Every structure is written in C-alpha cells, then in structure tokens.
C-alpha cells in the first residue's frame, strides 16, 4: 500500500514536470515563430497596402502586395519593374511605381509618350489604359539612380512632380512580386526590347 502511494506521488511529480516542459517548449516555438517572422519581414520581404490609384490598372487601391527585398541582391533593377522605394522627398513614406528610366539615360516625355536617349520611337507601354498627356523633361538620370512613373500617368504623383526627381538604388526597398489581396496574382515586369 505504501509503495502504491509513493508511485502515485512520483507519477504526479512526473506529470507536473512533463506539463511544465511541454508548456516551455510551446512558448519557445511561439517566440521563435515571431522572431523568424520579424526577421523575414525586415530582411527578406515587405508587406505593402496600396493607398492610391497611381498604378491602375496593374495594381488597384487597397491591393495588398508582397515585395521581395532580395530581388536586387544579385541583379540590377530593370526598366518595367514595379518597385517599392523610399520617397525621395519624404523618407517617412514608401511609394510603389514602375522603373522607366535607368542610370545614365536621357528621358523625355512628349505628348504623354516616353522617349529614351533621343529615340524617334516612343517606349511601348502596354500596361497604360488611358493615353497620358503632357510634356516633361528632358531628364538626365544620374548614375546609380532611377526614374519612376506611375502606370496611371495622369493621376500619379511621380518623378515628374517631385523636387528630387531620381531614386537612388539603395533607396529601393524591393521588387513587387505578388499581389495577394483581393486576389492572388504574380506581378511580372514589362518587357521592352531594345531602346536607343
């Protein structure tokens, strides 16, 4: 009888230790998950909600996107990439626009059409729904910098209107990769072919 009571006491101690160990393990896993999520969000991807219609039709207001922070680790940004970057006029804001002008290029907008390096042929921009208006530039893009425009050209507050017209490469947060709300869509860069 005495032996049975000792076994019950040992079992209760073991159960208590087992429960404490189990709880400790779960707490550790939860903390690890939060730390990994924080590190992923800080260094691998960014989550963005689009507040305006400057990128219509590709990206709509209130769309939610995942931005790949590592996209330009091994390659240079390309014309046509949709990128999130730090606003050159107000570093407390991030913007989402399309790269149109590359380092060292001359860019001019005539009657709403973009011309690169004095080409006679305008840049083909099939992602634009409504024909843009206006004349802007010429802009001589410095080395290490990019010229950004919104796809909804006549409604976009983009490089044409900023005090600091160019975005330095180190201010590009990442390349927009996936639209996940309200529907899931992989965002592709526009293909342009050769420009003069």
Notable characteristics:
196 residues, alpha+beta, 8-stranded antiparallel beta sheet, 3-stranded antiparallel beta sheet, 11 strands, 21% helix, 29% strand, elongated
Structure report:
The chain has 196 residues and is an alpha+beta fold. The protein has one helix spanning 2-43, and strands at residues 45-49, 64-68, 82-86, 94-101, 106-110, 113-116, 136-140, 145-149, 167-168, 172-181, 185-186. Strands 1, 2, 3, 4, 8, 9, 10 and 11 form an eight-stranded antiparallel β-sheet that branches. Strand 3 and strand 4 (94-101) form a beta hairpin. The protein is elongated.
In short:
With 196 residues, the protein is an alpha+beta fold. The chain contains 1 helix and 11 strands.
Please trace the helix and strand order, writing H or E for each element. HEEEEEEEEEEE
Radius of gyration: 26 Å
Please bin the fraction of helical residues. 10-25%
Structural class: alpha+beta
Amino- and carboxy-terminal Cα gap: 97 Å
- Number of β-strand runs: 11
Q: How is the main sheet built?
A: 8 strands, antiparallel
The shape, in one word, is elongated
Report the uncertain regions: none
Q: Residue-averaged pLDDT, rounded? A: 88
Strand content: 25-35%
Number of helices, where a helix is a run of at least 4 consecutive DSSP H or I residues: 1
Element layout with pairings:
Layout: H1 2-43, E1 45-49, E2 64-68, E3 82-86, E4 94-101, E5 106-110, E6 113-116, E7 136-140, E8 145-149, E9 167-168, E10 172-181, E11 185-186
Antiparallel strand pairs: 1-2, 2-10, 3-4, 3-10, 4-8, 5-6, 5-7, 8-9, 10-11
